[in-house]
Amino acid sequence: ELHDAVEEVLPDLECDGIHVFYLSSVSPTPGVEALLPAIEAAPDEPLPARYRANVTASSKAMYIYTSGTTGLPKAAVITELKLMMVASLGRICGLRPDDVVYTTLPLYHSAGLLIGLGGCLEVGATCVLRTKFSASQFWADCRHYNVSVIQYVGELMRYLCNTPKCANDREHGVRMALGNGMRAEVWKEFLRRFGPVAVWEFYGATEGNAGFINYTG
User: Fold this and answer.
1) φ, ψ dihedrals at 64, nearest 5°
2) pLDDT tens-digit profile of 120-155?
3) Which domains does the chain have, with CATH numbers?
């Protein structure tokens, strides 16, 4: 779906020596490689240590674009240390290898990528990804995939509370919700309607250097 956007900036990326991949079996664009064949051909053995010999905690792991508190989106440097620290948030909150985490958040933001997907990789949990949030399908997905942990931003929970009430509102296996920005009145209504879910509310910023969480529940 980002085919046109990729082709528009591809010459600049190639000049900078950046490799571009499609998560597909074939690539329709010259200069862009298909990633799935490489993934399928990858060995099960761990990568040789020499491939990461120069990687340290302060090495750049990725850039995440964020508008921050003002202005246009800008690239925030995510170091290996910050990646590991943010990905460990799930473990701090009690995320387990047998958990199934459901996230509808975009993976180009820290919450979905580092906390959601990264947290699952960190503990070995299962991650269920949905392309776009749907209030009407949210709990149906949770039941279908045996979801035990959900990820949210505040407005997402408000949308869930505003859906028509159903007799099976509490018929799910979700035990924990991890996210940020939920208003107090929405928090109370969510627990009243959907049951005793442990809510772990945090505050942080992609470009920041500190965060807060109610880690005691």
Assistant:
1) -120, 125
2) 999 999 999 998 999 999 999 999 999 999 999 989
3) 3-42 (no CATH), 80-213 (3.40.50.980)
